[in-house]
Amino acid sequence: VQLQASGGGLVQAGGSLRLSCAASGRTFSNVVMAWFRQAPGKEREFVAGIRWGSGRTYYADSVEGRFTISGLKSNNTVILEMNNLIPEDTAIYYCAASYRGLSTVENGYDNWGQGTLVTVSS
Q1: What's the pLDDT score for residue 73?
Q2: pLDDT of residue 2
């Protein structure tokens, strides 16, 4: 599956951004889609995931209640709505896909999109 991420940018603390990840290629009935992020000098970390078939969602504690992941089945696009952003959210955000079930670690995903930079100013 091919992934194309978009929507990053610069925003002030407290603001909002919407990331999109357009997926194409394989069928999506049993895929798990996720967003990861990597801040400067840090390891890539899980942000949110969604089981495409059931719509069940999962979040990292650091973003629970502020971020929302959803899937638009009409065009195979995964959305990450980010609200009440804080400077610590600054990172390159990556979308990823897995047919091996939900994972919160990087090596659980076989397909990655290019990153999109999110910068939150204080």
Answers
A1: 85
A2: 93
**C-beta separation of 52 from 26 below 8 A:** no
The rounded distance, in Å, linking the Cα atoms of 3 and 80 is 14
Residues 115 and 5 sit within 8 Å (Cβ to Cβ): yes
Residue 65 CA to residue 86 CA, distance in Å, equals 13
- Specify which residues 78 forms β-bridges with: 21, 71
Q: What per-residue confidence (pLDDT) applies to 25?
A: 86
Three-state SS sequence of the chain: CEEEEECCEEEECCCCEEEEEEEECCCCCCCEEEEEEECCCCCCEEEEEEECCCCCEEECCCCCCCEEEEEECCCCEEEEEECCCCHHHCEEEEEEEECCCCCCCHHHCCEECCCEEEEEEC
Listed in sequence order, the residues at least 6 apart from 54 whose beta carbon sits closer than 8 Å to its beta carbon are none
Burial class (CB in 10 A: 0-12, 13-18, 19+), 97: buried
Which segments of the chain have a pLDDT < 50? none
Say which residue the tokens 């990823």 belong to: 96
